[in-house]
Amino acid sequence: MRITCPHCGARDRREFYYLGAEDYLHRPAEDAAPAAWDAYLHLRDNPAGATRDLWYHEQGCGAWLLVTRNTVTHEILGVRAVDGEATE
Amino acid sequence: MGFKHWNAGGYSGLRVLAEGLLGNKGWTPAWRDPAPKDSYDAVIIGGGGHGLSTAYYLAKNHGLTNIAVLEKGYLGGGNVGRNTTIVRANYFLPGNSEFYSHSLKLWEGLEQELNYNVMHSQRGLINLFHSDGQRDAFARRGNAMVNQGDDAVLLDRAGVRRMLPYLDFDNARFPIYGGLYHARGGTARHDAVAWGYARGADRLGVDLIQNCEVTGIDVEGGRVLGVQTTRGAIKARKVAMIVAGRSGQVAAMAGMRLPVESHILQAFVTEGLKPCIDHVISFGMGHFYISQSDKGGLVFGGDLDFYASYAQRGNLPMVEHVMEAGMALMPMIGRPKVLRSWGGIMDMTPDGSPIIDKTHIDGLFIDCGWNYGGFKAVPASGWCMAHLMATGESHEVARGFRLNRFETGHLLDEEGTGSQHNLH
């Protein structure tokens, strides 16, 4: 599996650290209800098919990436830097 | 002669002998293949190990026999047929340890209970440690196991060497300091566990319905009424979702979002060898564990691939990592050829512990979140899920496995790795 980093190009999966679903981008306010924190930290759509998740280019440029992937085929459908421009 | 009588009876050595003498013409299918009825008292979604054992104990312990197990493929075709077959009770946290202790006791009587040879082999499990700190952690775990009433012996280096002389004790980076020996740990024939529970449930009157995919869960006024399937609608006042890696999709039919992310875990088996590895062994400095099957193949595995996946196959970096860890631990396995590798879909929770609970919908129950430790839990999971469905109360050894524990903060994080699904 290769992931095309918008800064570094197509790189081996081993250069990247997987954090989890894109839910991690939506951090609740500090005074949000416990249910909001539960949803943020624990609950997941967990789709079989297209999903978006966060990867960190640990052994590359150090960018956080939002990767659109197919969880059934492992196909990478798109990658963009968090807060950045789409490359695919 | 009364050979019909033989067929109606159980399996035994005498019957094998009698059938052998008569050309093995008297064997019949181990379970029926019924068409689904319009309604049942309870329906179990998922014909894997946990679903089948739940059905068995509902019928056996609670007298509920008007029930059906709905399986979208064939019985035992998911994780119960894809795991590395290890059975153990070496948990540390209260909430986990009494559950796995209960499960191991059920394993120890399972073959007699089911009249089925599940090839349960208590060959002993050894978790190796490689530093003083790790020794302290394993000593503490061993004490917790003994306090629970299970067995644990802390082996020093010489003790491990007597049992496992072929390990690389003086590996420059990960020298072996000792191991925690759990003599009652071991392995079982995974498929046979599913088949044994299936046959047992069928004999008690449970309908096992294969090629029957649930496509919807009927809920009205906060109460479950039944399910929609590819073989028609089925009414039931109690519905259990026991579908492991597919829990997210099935729960979504009831409008639920679960604390579960599905991940891929790979396993490997080599060509058959003469007996050389007598125990189950785990490496303490890389995620690697190994045992030898009765056919002779070395069965081993490692860690998750670490990203969410439903592919039932993994990627090469983890293959390489597992092989490297194995070679670091026991260089003698470098010669055998790997025959097969495969992957299973693991329902990973944020604390690494499972869920056996009611849901917010009356009559709808869930049993999931087995991470990659579900096989050894099959007997107790079914036992406790059946208890919950029949009585409405959590079983005393499964009280920690609540669905809402993440919201309330009552996590059961056995390894202390934090609330990220793939870190357990």
UniProtKB/TrEMBL annotation, chain A:
<protein>
    <submittedName>
        <fullName>Sarcosine oxidase subunit delta</fullName>
    </submittedName>
</protein>
<dbReference type="InterPro" id="IPR006279">
    <property type="entry name" value="SoxD"/>
</dbReference>
<dbReference type="GO" id="GO:0046653">
    <property type="term" value="P:tetrahydrofolate metabolic process"/>
</dbReference>
<dbReference type="GO" id="GO:0008115">
    <property type="term" value="F:sarcosine oxidase activity"/>
</dbReference>
<dbReference type="InterPro" id="IPR038561">
    <property type="entry name" value="SoxD_sf"/>
</dbReference>
<dbReference type="Pfam" id="PF04267">
    <property type="entry name" value="SoxD"/>
</dbReference>
UniProtKB/TrEMBL annotation, chain B:
<keyword id="KW-0560">Oxidoreductase</keyword>
<dbReference type="InterPro" id="IPR036188">
    <property type="entry name" value="FAD/NAD-bd_sf"/>
</dbReference>
<keyword id="KW-0547">Nucleotide-binding</keyword>
<comment type="similarity">
    <text>Belongs to the SoxB family.</text>
</comment>
<protein>
    <recommendedName>
        <fullName>Sarcosine oxidase subunit beta</fullName>
        <ecNumber>1.5.3.24</ecNumber>
    </recommendedName>
</protein>
<dbReference type="InterPro" id="IPR006076">
    <property type="entry name" value="FAD-dep_OxRdtase"/>
</dbReference>
<keyword id="KW-0274">FAD</keyword>
<dbReference type="GO" id="GO:0000166">
    <property type="term" value="F:nucleotide binding"/>
</dbReference>
<keyword id="KW-0285">Flavoprotein</keyword>
<dbReference type="InterPro" id="IPR001763">
    <property type="entry name" value="Rhodanese-like_dom"/>
</dbReference>
<dbReference type="GO" id="GO:0005737">
    <property type="term" value="C:cytoplasm"/>
</dbReference>
<dbReference type="GO" id="GO:0008115">
    <property type="term" value="F:sarcosine oxidase activity"/>
</dbReference>
<keyword id="KW-0963">Cytoplasm</keyword>
<dbReference type="InterPro" id="IPR006278">
    <property type="entry name" value="SoxB"/>
</dbReference>
<feature type="domain" description="Rhodanese">
    <location>
        <begin position="43"/>
        <end position="86"/>
    </location>
</feature>
<keyword id="KW-0288">FMN</keyword>
<dbReference type="GO" id="GO:0046653">
    <property type="term" value="P:tetrahydrofolate metabolic process"/>
</dbReference>
<dbReference type="Pfam" id="PF01266">
    <property type="entry name" value="DAO"/>
</dbReference>
